[in-house]
Amino acid sequence: MTLIKSISGIRGTIGGTVGNNLTPIDAVKFAAAYGTWLKNDRKKEQLTVVIGRDARISGEMIQDLVVNTLIGLGIDVVDLGLSTTPTVEVAVPMEHADGGIILTASHNPKQWNALKLLNSKGEFLSGADGKRILEIADSDDFNFAQVDDLGNVRTNNAYIDLHIEEVLSLDLVASAKIKDAKFKIVVDGVNSTGGIAIPRLLEALDVYTVELYCTPNGDFPHNPEPLKEHLTDICELVKKEKADLGIVVDPDVDRLAFIDEKGEMFGEEYTLVAVADYVLGKTKGNTVSNLSSSRALRDVTEKHGGNYEASAVGEVNVVQLMKDNNAVIGGEGNGGIIYPELHYGRDSLVGVALFLSHLAEMGISVSELRKSYPSYFMSKQKIELTPHLDVDRILGLIAEKYASEDVKTIDGVKIDFADNWVHLRKSNTEPIIRIYTEASSQQEADELAHRFIEEIKAIAGI
């Protein structure tokens, strides 16, 4: 059982002991730290925070604790109830709120939950702000409101529909063409809020929808991370239903994967590639993803005459580089689409709408669309080290060894070779080096990963 505190929030497993798990006391303490930081930062007489949650079994309990803690600080709350991460991000500026909290552990199994923290723009906090909240939480320096100054709660269940309206109003969402295409789509909502939002979006686009695991009860029917090995049910159902494609989202609906008409994975790395291809074909500009994402986005960007840049891993880093690089589309290779015309956050709803617009306009199958992109294969490995080893020194020596190559050290060590790449990152919570590689074949990617595993072991003397 685990409790992980970081600059992006707090997450952990439900139950257990205080300080070692996400217990009610930990939830209250961290919510109080966020509210205290917000009061110090915003310097307003009355503050408002938007709160929404995914469908996890523990969600209602954690939400009650967080909401009432903010009320105790004198902060008003807009309660969205069951919602999605991107919906809360959209709601914060629409409500002119001072911040937001999303109660979700994203793709983690059902025993996990978390508090994800937003600023007044509906974007994830900066590293400096997150660090300050951690300091406040450790200090227990809280000043709660007097009885006449307690905050109030207002419930608003309309924001998933408002979010959908905002998506459909975007210039690049070709609603008429999607309706004319008469798509038949299977949706796996992993029994969370994607089972509410995605079918509702498809209904607005006149798509015939077959629902799979769309009851938002938090009883995840499979590992909720949208990877191939977890998605056999939808792959079979797409074929059985003779559907045009399948759509899979994670519990908080910020990661998006597609299944082609043959029941094969489109590839989570290619979700962003396909959407970027469509956007760049309509809007000239630049793109951003993180260092561990596929080289295919670079290829597609350059095909359209744009400039591609890679950020450190983490949504806040991607967003900042997108702003710096004036990117018109960006995201992460795990199926996260960030389209600034709507908001700066990973959003499966806008990803679905743009992907279907592309597919309808092209008039081809999903498998044919996939074949139109450069074909790369990734390997994701890790190597466990003993706690006393200096991981930074090991990575530094690797960077020195390959100094003649294209090396980036903004987040671990990324080495771009002519035909492939490797990205080495240390874990923030355990003595592990994560090893990501990409090449033109799976065998080459795996071999490259194992080569660097052996090099790391040799340097570490293990």
Automatic annotation (TrEMBL):
Any coiled-coil regions, as ranges: none
Keywords, comma-separated and alphabetical: Isomerase, Magnesium, Metal-binding, Phosphoprotein
Superkingdom of origin organism: Bacteria
PROSITE patterns tied to this protein: PGM_PMM (PS00710)
SUPFAM superfamilies associated with the record: Phosphoglucomutase, C-terminal domain, Phosphoglucomutase, first 3 domains
Catalytic EC class: isomerase
GO terms for MF: phosphoglucosamine mutase activity
Residue stretches making up the Alpha-D-phosphohexomutase C-terminal domain: 404-454
Pfam families (UniProt xref): PGM_PMM_I, PGM_PMM_II, PGM_PMM_III, PGM_PMM_IV
This enzyme's EC code(s): 5.4.2.10
Cofactor: Mg(2+)
InterPro entries from the UniProt entry: A-D-PHexomutase_a/b/a-I, A-D-PHexomutase_a/b/a-I/II/III, A-D-PHexomutase_a/b/a-II, A-D-PHexomutase_a/b/a-III, A-D-PHexomutase_C, A-D-PHexomutase_C_sf, A-D-PHexomutase_CS, Alpha-D-phosphohexomutase_SF
The keyword Transmembrane appears for this protein: no
Sequence ranges assigned to domain Alpha-D-phosphohexomutase alpha/beta/alpha in this UniProt record: 8-142, 172-263, 270-374
Family: Belongs to the phosphohexose mutase family.
Protein name in the entry: Phosphoglucosamine mutase
Biological source species: Sungkyunkwania multivorans
Encoding gene, per UniProt annotation: glmM
